[in-house]
Design goal:
This protein has 352 residues and is mainly alpha-helical. The chain is built from 11 helices and 4 strands; from the N terminus they run ββαααααααααααββ. It has a domain of 34 residues. Helix content is 61%, strand content 3%.
């Protein structure tokens, strides 16, 4: 029996809490004579939302990006153009000190082609001004483009770098070295392969038709500039592919899906740049261009992996690559030591 002064009858239902939940009462304590209620657990602390980000607060990725107005961009462009021209002028005067040696270097492919076909190794000047315009102006100017290419490329990078993220500015040195190296490599390939084979092919066709060559120095210089600069610029294809990926204009998947159109365009460019219309010389120019295209796609793929925080499985790729290189080296060794072939500097490269 409960005491009459007991504040709460244990048989009566407990009063609901303020939040609507019923808390059951503990059994009556015989010693104290009162009912002990269980204390509910304290509510969880409220979740405090982070303060909203201000609109004018820069992103972590955008940290270090320079913000310039349109007029500031124009002023920066003018500064970079002036510095590029000054670099070319300095390189031009340096090349003028070696203009005779450079002219001997320029006319060497024509002399070799004429000698190999039994013609006198001479170039003709049809006007009195051809000699001075070629030796004193065009040859030093062409050489200054290759000599000043790292400086000009640095100015290009300095102009576009304010619009890049801080982590993307680390590509400055690789960009300059790779672009200048490919430009010089393209000119070297055109000088030692494309131009020499093209001249020999053209002069040989004329000899078989009974045509005696009388080559003008000005016409030869035009052909020389077109082939050298054309192939050198085409060798910049990997840099172009990588740069388009860096600016998020294209993706490696898009480049691989449309590779057939890229190969078609490369073939057309090779036909335009190559001085001869035959398929052999065009293939010799188009083949390295296609390889360079896929190298650019691979470089852009590595860039995308780095953006996603992933790494390329070099260990899995290195072993098959080494096996392929070893097999090719074994084939070349068998041809040279087993079949007594020797290496030559032109197609087919291995002859008896």
């Amino acid at each position: 029996m409960p005491y009459p002064d007991d504040p709460q009858d244990p048989q009566t239902p407990p009063e609901p809490e303020k939040d609507g939940r019923e808390v059951p009462a503990e059994p009556a304590n015989s010693e104290a004579g009162t009912a002990v209620q269980r204390v509910p657990p304290p509510p969880p602390p409220p979740v405090v939302a982070p303060p909203p980000k201000k609109e004018d607060e820069p992103d972590e990725d955008e940290e270090g990006m320079a913000r310039m107005s349109f007029l500031q961009h124009l002023e920066e462009l003018r500064t970079r153009l002036i510095r590029s021209v000054l670099g070319l002028v300095v390189a031009f005067f340096v090349c003028m000190a070696f203009m005779n040696q450079m002219w001997d270097f320029v006319r060497q492919p024509a002399i070799v082609a004429l000698k190999s076909l039994g013609y006198p190794p001479n170039l003709a000047a049809l006007t009195p001004m051809e000699g001075i315009s070629i030796v004193w102006m065009r040859v030093p100017l062409l050489a200054s483009l290759f000599l000043a290419s790292p400086w000009v490329l640095y100015q290009v990078w300095a102009f576009i770098s304010p619009g890049l993220y801080k982590r993307e500015r680390r590509f400055a040195a690789p960009f300059i070295l790779t672009t200048a190296g490919l430009f010089i490599l393209g000119g070297t390939f055109a000088y030692f392969v494309a131009l020499r084979l093209g001249l020999f092919f053209l002069l040989k066709i004329g000899k078989e038709a009974g045509i005696t060559p009388y080559i003008s120095a000005s016409e030869y210089m035009d052909l020389f500039v077109n082939v050298i600069l054309g192939v050198a610029l085409i060798f910049e294809l990997p840099v172009l592919v990588f740069f388009l990926t860096l600016l998020r204009i294209v993706t490696p998947k898009f480049l691989m899906q449309h590779s057939r159109y890229a190969i078609l365009g490369i073939t057309v460019l090779a036909a335009i740049v190559t001085p001869t219309p035959d398929a052999v010389n065009m293939t010799l120019v188009a083949a390295p261009m296609i390889v360079l295209y896929f190298l650019g796609v691979f470089a852009s793929f590595l860039l995308v992996l780095r953006r996603e925080g992933k790494s390329f499985p070099w260990n899995k790729v290195a072993r098959p690559a080494l096996i392929v290189i070893a097999v090719l080296a074994a084939i070349v060794a068998i041809l040279m030591f087993g079949f007594h072939l020797h290496w030559v500097a032109k197609w087919p490269f291995l002859v008896k």
